[in-house]
Amino acid sequence: MKEPNGTSFYEYLGESKLMGSRCESCNALYVPPRPLCPSCYGEEMAWEEMSGEGELMAFTTVHIAPTAMIEVGYGRNNPYCVGIVELAEGPAISAQIVGVDTAKPTGIEIGTHLRATYVKRGDRSFLGFEPAA
């Protein structure tokens, strides 16, 4: 989904903004944004900035990493965590969970309050979440 100014979801991440789309017909909210509402098939979607606050619903640690994650240092001896985060606004999104001890995943708890963080890798930003202080 692009705004009239041409900004995309990933460009907003580069600006440290977590954006979703709200259907102007049925008010449903989606993150990441969608160009068409799957609930009512409405085509009038508007950008909406999320607070970046949420709660960990599910997670896993990844030891066998894809190439892109291996290139930034993750793998068998340095696993990373990914999770599903339910945002304060309602939608859920998957993202890397940073600031947790992946060597002892039993210390990672469902229900942990998280906040969005923006992980820079090269010239791109990726969505992550970290435990809120």
Task: Give a short summary of the structure.
This protein is mainly β and 133 residues long. Helices cover 8% and strands 40% of the residues. It folds into 2 domains: 9-49; 53-131, OB fold (Dihydrolipoamide Acetyltransferase, E2P) (Beta Barrel).
What does this structure look like?
With 133 residues, the chain is mainly β. It folds into two domains: 9-49; 53-131, OB fold (Dihydrolipoamide Acetyltransferase, E2P). The chain is built from two helices and eight strands. The strands form two sheets. It has a five-stranded mixed beta barrel with strand order 4-5-6-8-7. A three-stranded antiparallel sheet has the order 2-1-3. The longest helix has 6 residues, at 9-14. The mean pLDDT is 92.
Number of strands: 8
Number of structurally distinct domains: 2
Strand content: 35-45%
- The appropriate CATH architecture of the largest domain is Beta Barrel
**So what's the overall shape?**
globular
Distance between the termini: 33 Å
Proportion of helical residues: under 10%
Mean pLDDT: 92
In DSSP terms, counting alpha (H) and pi (I) runs of 4 or more, how many helices?
A: 2
Which structural class matches the secondary elements?
mainly beta
Low-confidence stretches: none
Radius of gyration: 16 Å
What is the spatial order of strands in the main beta sheet?
Answer: 4-5-6-8-7
Query: How would a textbook summarize the main sheet?
Result: 5 strands, mixed, barrel
CATH topology of the largest domain: OB fold (Dihydrolipoamide Acetyltransferase, E2P)
Q: What would CATH call the class of the largest domain? A: Mainly Beta
Order of helices and strands: HEEEEHEEEE
